[in-house]
Amino acid sequence: MSWGVDNLPYGVFSCPGERPRVGVRYGDRVLDLAPALHDEVFAAPSLNPFMARGRTAWHDTRTLIRNKLTGDLAVTEPHLIPLEHVRLHMPFEVADYVDFYCSLEHASNIGRIFRPGSEPLQPNWRHLPVGYHGRAGTVVVSGTPVKRPSGQLGPGEFGPSRKLDIEAELGFVVGVPTEMGSPAGAFEDHVFGVTLVNDWSARDIQAWEYVPLGPFLGKSFATSVSPWVTPLEALPRLPGRPQDPEPGGYLRRQGDWGLDVHLEIVLNGEVVSRPPYSAMYWTPDQMLAHMTVNGASLRTGDLFASGTVSGPEPDQRGSLIELTWNGTEPIKLPGGETRTFLQEGDTVTIRATAGDLTLGEVSGTVG
Amino acid sequence: MSWGVDNLPYGVFSCPGERPRVGVRYGDRVLDLAPALHDEVFAAPSLNPFMARGRTAWHDTRTLIRNKLTGDLAVTEPHLIPLEHVRLHMPFEVADYVDFYCSLEHASNIGRIFRPGSEPLQPNWRHLPVGYHGRAGTVVVSGTPVKRPSGQLGPGEFGPSRKLDIEAELGFVVGVPTEMGSPAGAFEDHVFGVTLVNDWSARDIQAWEYVPLGPFLGKSFATSVSPWVTPLEALPRLPGRPQDPEPGGYLRRQGDWGLDVHLEIVLNGEVVSRPPYSAMYWTPDQMLAHMTVNGASLRTGDLFASGTVSGPEPDQRGSLIELTWNGTEPIKLPGGETRTFLQEGDTVTIRATAGDLTLGEVSGTVG
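The joint structure predicted for all components is written out below.
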C-alpha cells in the first residue's frame, strides 16, 4: 500500500478544537503518536523536540511505530485518525533556512538566460556548492495561498511581479545541532529527514536586485514545504553523480547520498516537468559539510534546500523560467491555454516518489 | 550621569545560580524589572515577549521605569543590582537576520576594491537599499570569542581565512510582527530599538563564494551584538541624508530617521575609526519598507542591520578592508605594531554615543 510501513513520514496535525501535535502518516490515516507511544515529546506542536533527540532515537522510534502497525492493530487502531478529519500544519519550526544551487543543469540554464554570451557557470560553481540564506519566517506549509509580490522591477519601475515562478527542490531538515566553531559530523547524525520545497520566485524582482548580495525580495515572500517529513532512513540512495574536479578535503563525499527521488511539477492538474533528483551535482552531505566548514553552528529545525532540481532533458527542468526559456517558449496546457509565468488562480503542486515510497506533495495557489 | 534616565536600554542578565531575565541599565547597575514592575513578562530569558507588546506598552513601561528611578529610590533600590554581580546574555531571540548595505561610501569603497576600473556602485544601488539574509543562529552577544573561520579561499585553496575583518553597524530589532502578504506600517510601530552590530567577515572566503548568490560562509560564522538594546524613543534623530534620485512610493521617507549616532572602532585599545551614522544614505524606515514591500512578514525578534557604517573621510571607514585598502595600507598601532586584517588575540570593540546617550559597546576577541 501507498504510505505503508516502509514510508512513515512525520508531520504535525490537529483535529477540530484540539492542539496541533505530531503524527505519522500510515495509509490514509494519521497515527497520533503521543498516546500511541506514551511519549509527550509528540504532544509538541512541532517536530523539533523529537528531532533534537538524535539518530538512535529516530531509529528506535521508527522501529517501535512499525511494530505497532504490524502487530496487534486493535491496540493501535484507536490512535489512527482518518486524514479527512485532520488539518496539517507546518511540521517543524524553521531555525535558519539556506538554499543551495546544486543542479548543474539549472545553474547552467540560468547562466545562459541571465548572462547570454558568457560562460554559463561561474568560476566557483564546480568547486563548492553555492548557497545563501533565505527567509525562515516565510516558510509555510503546503496549501498556504501565495500572494503575488510587488516590488521594483527595474529603475523607477514598481508593481506586481510579472514573472512569478516556482522552483522544485528537496529540503533537508536538521535535528541535531552543533556548537559554534565546530563543523558538522556525519550527515546522518544531523539530518532527520527530507521535505519537498517550492521556492517561489519573482524573477523580475530578483534580476534587478541580486547584484552583488544575492536574491532577497525576489524569494523572501514565500517558500512552501510539504506537510510530511520523510525520515532519511526510509529513502533509497544512489552513488552521487560524478564530479569534475573531484572534490577533496571537507567536500569528499561521506557515502552514497545521491537520492533516487523522482519529482513531478503539476500546473493546474497537468504534469509539466519530471525532474530527477539523481541528476543533482552536489549531494546533501556535501551541502552540510560546506555550510558548517567555517564553524557556523546548526540548530534543530535548520532547513537547507537543494536548489532547483533540473535534469538534462528539457522536460526535466524544475522552474518555469527554464521550462519556458524566460517566457520565450510558452508551455501548452490542456484546453489551448499557455503559460510563461504564473497567473492568478494557478495551482502548482510538486510531488515526488522514491522507489515504492511517496514523499507526498507541496502545493500552493496564486492569489 | 552616563546611562541615566534618558537612556535606559534593555538587556538580559543573570546573577550566579539564577535564571536569565530582563533588566534595564541605570548607571552601573541593572534594574531587575520583573520584581520592580511586578510584571512577569520580564522574567523571560529574552526581550521578545515584552517587545511583542507594542509601542504603547514600550512607551508606558519607559515612563514607569523613569518614575521609579526618579521617585522614592528606597523602594526601587533593592531591585538595582551592581553590574559586576551579573552576567549579560543575548538580549533577544533572533528570528530572521537581514543585513543591508546602506552606506554610499562603504558600497563605493568595496566596489573600487573588488571591481577596480568599473563603476563602483551597481546600477540598482541608488534605487533600493540592497540587502540579504544572514545566519540568525550565529548572532551572539558581545564578549563571545570569535574563532577564525576556515574555508575555500580560491580554486583548490583551503585554510583559515587570512582576511578576517569586522564591520561596524547599527542593528534594528523588530518587536511587532506583520502578517504575510502585508507590508509593514509605520517604522516606529514595529521597531523596538537599536543594537550595535559587528558583522565579522572573512574577505577571502567572501570574494571567492559570493557570485552570484551573495555572501554566505564569509559572514555566517559569527555576528556580534551589544548586550543593551536602546529604545528607539531614546535616540536623537536627524533628517536623512539627501538622496539622488529621491525615492518615491514605498521608499518615501516616513520622517526624520537619520540617527545622530557616532561610532568608534577600537582595535586592541586604540581608536582606529570614527564612523558617523548620520552619513548613511538609506534610512532605517526605508530598510523596513523595502524588506516588507513584497509581503514578507516580520516576526518579533527580527534583526536588520544597516550594513557597514562608513563616512566620507578615510578615518571614518567601518571595516578593515576599507581602512587598509584591502591590506595595502596597514594601520599603525601603538608600540610599532601594524595591522591589515585581524590576528589571533586581537580584540575589536565597537562603541557608540548619540548626543548625551551611550549605546554601549559590542566587543569580541579572535581566537
